[in-house]
Amino acid sequence: MFRNAIKILKIFGIDVELDISWFLVFFLFSYTLSRHYYPQVLPETEDTIHWILGISTTILVFISVLIHELAHSLMAIKEGIPINKITLFIFGGVAQMKKEPELPAAELKITVVGPLSSLVLSAMFGIIYLVLPRGIPISEGVWFLARMNLLVGILNLIPAFPLDGGRLLRAFLWLWKGNLLNATRIAVLAGSYFAFFAMGIGFVMLFMAGTVWGLWYIFLGWLLYQAGQSSYSQVALKESLSGIKVKDVMSEQVQVVNIGMSIEELIEEFYRYKFGAFPVMEDSNLKGLITMNRLKDIPKSQWARTEVGEVMVPLEHCLIVHPDSEAVEAMMKMASEGAGRALVVQEDRLTGILSNTDMMRVIKIKTMFGSLD
Ligand SMILES: [Zn+2]
Questions:
Q1: pTM of the model
Q2: What is the pLDDT, as a whole number, of residue 89?
């Protein structure tokens, strides 16, 4: 999702990164605050102070968003769900969980702490504002932060999946009826109503009031709609594939190649078997995987002299799954690591190979003929 992100710090063992879009919004936000907002509320104050306030409140808004995401992350870790990283981007932040919560109670706890932390931050800034004397620059900044965190808390509570409020709605329905897929369907439906509502407001603003800000509402509504649809198909796919093990899907007829084979001989094997990759063996020990892609940078003149072992993906860099693990988990792992295939290994022995093509075939059968039970 975020290919152009820069890692900035590590906090509680979680990597925090900034997406490239963050810099744009950082600039726009501090510019708008420094040139339009603060000059209006503090007309007597000089421009330098407006800029200092504008930039420092922007930084504090992002720190507030980071605290919101950290709250989700720390609760997730407490519930046994590891966190990949937190990314700050144009619309705020996102904490990437390694897997989805398996119980509604866990999802409730992980979700609720986010908006809650924004509301607590809002209250804290509100109290500081009340204590400070009126009319000084700092108190205006604090007042802005109190309202901003309130807005973040409230917007996130809109019951539109995949926003926090939609996740809460889903968790409640899931807890109540015990059916995750159905709960997701309802929460996504509620989300699409909000999305269409936002887009409707956008069109009214654009065509009746003639304000370009309407475009933002249309854009945000559309994003929300897309996000809801894609989370629904993910859950639906996961549900329909649950119970299917790696060993039910993998190819067992594995053709292997020897580590000492030359590239020239290897290419003959590619022609003969028409596989995209071969596991590499040394005697009866698995050593790695050789894919067609690894060969593309080797000049033809070197083919006879280069051995498979020199260009293969070594075993420690291969994606390895157990035959009894869930196929859908393996698929998620393959997707998140950008791997086209995984080696299926049980007690150090190669028992099969799992490829995207194998998974696609099962999904196709499932969608065409439905479940067998
Ligand atoms: Zn949140």
A1: 0.69
A2: 78
